[in-house]
Amino acid sequence: MKGKIMIKLEGTKFIDISYTLKNKMPADPALKLPTLEFFSNVGVNGQLHNLEVISYCPHTGTHMDSPFHVDINGESIEKLEPTLLIGPAVVVSLNCSDKRPYVITAEIIKNWEKSNIEIQKGDAVLLHTGHSKYWELGREEYIEKGYVSLSTDLAEYFVDKGIRFIGLESISVDGPETGTKVHKILLGNNIYIVENLTNLDKIESKRCTTIGTFPAVKGASAVWIRLLALV
Which ranges constitute the DSSP H helices of 42-173? Predict the structure, then answer.
């Protein structure tokens, strides 16, 4: 998305759809959870500042994947358009959080569109499935008992639609059956992936505006983000 972006903020309600990033949050056990260590504390040994080192894997918490995540020749984070998280979004509400694991197919989304509104080119799609209710219960409930993912035909449908990015409440657009196929279809067509969203139930309309951005970390395969929904 290039050019001037105008957003009217007067009378707008902001909903934070990102998690607080902390050491104890559900994540794949292969990933390093964030640690925060202070090497300077105000008042200790004459120090004047609080200074810390944060170490983490960016595929934890609310984050966005870059094409480099699944393609050695794909673009890393610093090469992505910094405004790609800013723009119109459709909130697709599906009652499927109790059907774990659950795969959302193209047919499910097409049927939702027939009963609600059509997803337009340039929209972000926020999948409200209710899965975020398992976040505070830990890794077993949020991940190991199954989560909501996407089918490859849905990924291809989103490519045909020309959406901007897909956001969901679980750890991955891919389930165990698809490996990295959904990632590759979406990211290979410049449709970016935002995982581990929350508070989508607080967006009371089917359309909203998303706003957020990310640091330009050279060579990174993913990055933590702070994403807001404006309604």
Answer: 106-115, 139, 152-161
- How far is the C-alpha of 66 from the C-alpha of 203, rounded, in Å? 26
In terms of Cα–Cα distance, which of 207, 176, 185, 162 is closest to 65? Answer: 185
Of the candidates 27, 12, 16, 50, the residue with the CA atom closest to the CA atom of residue 135 = 27
Q: Is the pLDDT of residue 2 over 90?
A: no
Give the N- to C-terminal CA distance of the chain in Å, as an integer. Answer: 20
94: number of CA atoms within 13 Å, CB side?
27
* Eight-state DSSP code of residue 222: E
The tokens describing 98, both together, are: 């109790």
Would you mind telling me the total number of residues written for the chain in this entry? Answer: 231
Alpha carbon distance 77, 214 (integer Å): 9
Sequence-distant (6+) residues with CB within 8 A of 189 are 159
Note if the pTM is more than 0.85.
yes
Phi-psi region of 3 (alpha: psi -120 to 50; beta: other; left: phi over 0): left
**DSSP codes joined into one string, 116-146:** S-PPPTT-EEEEE-SGGGGGGG-HIIIIIT-
Of 78, 77, 91, 62, the closest CA to residue 210 belongs to 91
Q: What mean pLDDT is predicted for residues 50-75?
A: 96
Residue 7 has pLDDT above 90, yes or no: no
| Bridge partners, 222 (sequence order) | 65
Are 47 and 40 spatial neighbours (Cβ–Cβ below 8 Å)? yes
* Predicted pLDDT of residue 5: 59
